[in-house]
Amino acid sequence: MAVRIVPVIMSGGSGTRLWPLSRAAHPKQLHPLVTELSMVQETARRVAATSKDFKFEAPIIVLNESQYIRARGQLDELGCVPACYVVEPVGRNTAPVAAVAAELVRRELGDDVLVLLLPADHHIRDIEGFHQAIAHGAALAAQGQLVTFGIEPAGPETGYGYIRRGEPVSAGFHVSAFTEKPDVETAKTFLASGEYYWNAGIFLFGAGALLAELELYCSEVARCSLAAVSGAEMTGTKLTLDLAAFEACPSISFDYAVMERTSRAVVVPADIGWSDVGSWDALWSISDKDEHGNASRGNVSIHASENSFVISDGAKVAIHGVKDLIVVATGDAVLVIHRDDAQGVKKIVDALKEAGHDDLL
Amino acid sequence: MAVRIVPVIMSGGSGTRLWPLSRAAHPKQLHPLVTELSMVQETARRVAATSKDFKFEAPIIVLNESQYIRARGQLDELGCVPACYVVEPVGRNTAPVAAVAAELVRRELGDDVLVLLLPADHHIRDIEGFHQAIAHGAALAAQGQLVTFGIEPAGPETGYGYIRRGEPVSAGFHVSAFTEKPDVETAKTFLASGEYYWNAGIFLFGAGALLAELELYCSEVARCSLAAVSGAEMTGTKLTLDLAAFEACPSISFDYAVMERTSRAVVVPADIGWSDVGSWDALWSISDKDEHGNASRGNVSIHASENSFVISDGAKVAIHGVKDLIVVATGDAVLVIHRDDAQGVKKIVDALKEAGHDDLL
Q1: What angle do CA A251, A254, A256 make, to 5 degrees?
Q2: Which ipTM was obtained for this model?
Q3: Which pTM does this prediction carry?
């Protein structure tokens, strides 16, 4: 019998790296950034396939209250019916999300069913490769391992976590070490060694196995998360976690709480055309372009320009004679930065926060 | 007794060189581009002064129907009460405007009263110098000369008309030649000679003198313009020229119809801080700037950028890490061009016309 996997789509982020399009109540994952579907729709569709090696169950969607209506509308539109929408009353990073998900799966389907924890705002070009990697990971997770997926590094990026591979194990490797956001020199040595992967932030594990490891390494998160589930309020398919219990939970990443400590960590290489779409430049990189390297979305006119990315959700945006620019226009805000100016959006967003412009964030 | 001058403010233009701010029904001269007053307000204020040498009468405002309400509102706001608003039922360039104005002045005030013909969309920094030049010009115009004002060229611009000075006459010179839009090599020789001025498009002449010269050199314009006045419809201070007569009038510039042909042309040098604000770059040039050379209008945040010009009439516009850019955001359009990209706006506007986007023009 094919192994059963419950996809848990983490859709609670409200990042500002794609400001002004991405906003607290209408974040990146709810926008059609790469295709005509929103990123959460693409993610849901990606985990609706069947395979001879595994069976995806109805997904669990984790998000916050301000995103619920919009996200649900988008998934309804797709004909996707999640097992439930888990509403986080406050954000507590990914370890509590993993714990809540594992507990829900354990209660409903049993200890041995697998949980696939994945962000709603990543792009994966090669769906077949993705499913292949899941199949490889599922075989390991079914044996009690906690699986992370490793991306072949495309350059010495300093914004990612790196995973060093150890001894081979079936279609993967034991994890030898995790390194969060190395400096560029360190990242270069990692690449040169050929032993490192980027950590894609996608995890696969048995519900019972995760809860056991969490109890070992971070029992406070386990305790609070389980209490938040026990005290949760269910309305239809909307499960709102208990505020007091969840608020008491440490805010900590799943990598840090479990993966970096457990002896059961394995990495499965995943050559799947992955991008976390973590900046406008990253989105430009994976977008279709004209013969001059320009990409665009919406009501846009590009003249005599090169390697630029122009996005509008309404107004006509017209450019002429520029290169390497990002231009993003929404109804109430316009961003213009150099394409390699990774800090630009952050600086602008920080200044808006400072000035009390929460209406724009 | 001080000579009487009727300012005739030509406010009928609907240029697109400052697109997307300047639109057919809300053109450049009705925007507060340089100061907090609109350009037509500034122009009206500039010709409301008194002097021992001349007396400005109530002005005549020439415009088209779609601009009337807005222009009148702006002048009312300023407390400016024009002698009349002349509505052109169709545009016929500046020679017919001069003829209509001269005829109106002749009828109401007599042949000897002077007409100061001036565009509504130029910026003049030095008002005192402007009035001094007018005084010099008035002395010549009172003797029957047709006066144009000459700007010391700041560079070999190819977009202006050039005036070559001849023999001196009181505070000016007889005009030796006019040259429209020379190529850059010719413009350079003009500058090197020291004998040339830019034609500012501001003219001063006696009403009777102009009509006599027009009769000599371009009688068709004189005939049609006078008929358009005779057949005009007056409602309060709004005088709508007769459509059939004015439509029959040749469309021709005052320079070409009269100034380049008459023997009475004189040029008065005018060192008055003049700009025709003929491009976004020209507007940037005369704007106040921060220590990095950036200028802005409206709801704008500028970070780590140089020599750029950012304008918004609503949305927050934020830039980071760019230089030499023009960014202009209106509710329905956003323009991004290089500051020295003089052709950019024209190319974009032409493409919009081609695509039938009259709503944006």
Answers
A1: 85
A2: 0.86
A3: 0.88
